[in-house]
Amino acid sequence: MQRRKFLTLGAVAAAATVLPVGLSATDFRATNASAWEAPSSKEAIEALFGKGAMIEGKIEIKAPKLAENGGAVPIGIKSDIELTTVAVFQDANPRSAVVVFELYGNKIDLMTKIKMKKTAEVTIVAKGADGKLYKTAQKVEVSIGGCGG
Which pLDDT score, from 0 to 100, does residue 21 have? Predict the structure, then answer.
């Protein structure tokens, strides 16, 4: 009986040391509502990040040249820079902003899927731990009817 109590208390103590003290996340839809209503990437980017200069070429986007299913277009984002915020934008849908990741200064290798109604440019904007803004973009063609032939 004592052994079970000891093991239970040990497991609880181990779990408590692994769990973070507090978790928080920014609700970007509440803090930057205009970005989520913006019809173009340019307007959404300015609403979220302002009009500052952006450095290109430090973030890699992995997306298909031709997406056969516009309902689930795979988008990969990779960078060796420590980033705090990464946002995905596209101009294929009525609303440009897709998702914002809050990272706390990590090098990234992310994958997500987005919906695109038509061919358009996908833009990634990230804020580095150094406070600088980084940007990359790629045109993604969306096959009409789900067949890339």
Answer: 45
For the question of whether the overall pTM of this predicted structure is more than 0.85, the answer is: no
The rounded percent of the chain whose pLDDT value lies above 70 is 75
Helices (H) and strands (E) in the chain, counts: 4, 7
The token pair at 60 is 């890699």
Q: CA nearest 39: which of 107, 76, 102, 90? A: 90
User: Which residue stretches of the chain are H helix?
Assistant: 2-18, 28-31, 33-37, 41-49
Give the contacts of 119 (CB within 8 A, at least 6 positions apart).
92, 139, 140, 141, 142
Q: What tokens appear for 107 in the block? A: 């090098």
Going from the C-alpha of 117 to that of each of 50, 67, 113, the distances in angstroms are 27, 11, 13
List the one residue out of 84, 91, 103, 78 whose CA is nearest residue 44: 91
Per-residue pLDDT of 103-119, as tens digits, reads 887 788 999 999 999 99
Q: Which domains, ranges and CATH numbers included, belong to the chain? A: 25-142 (2.60.40.2470)
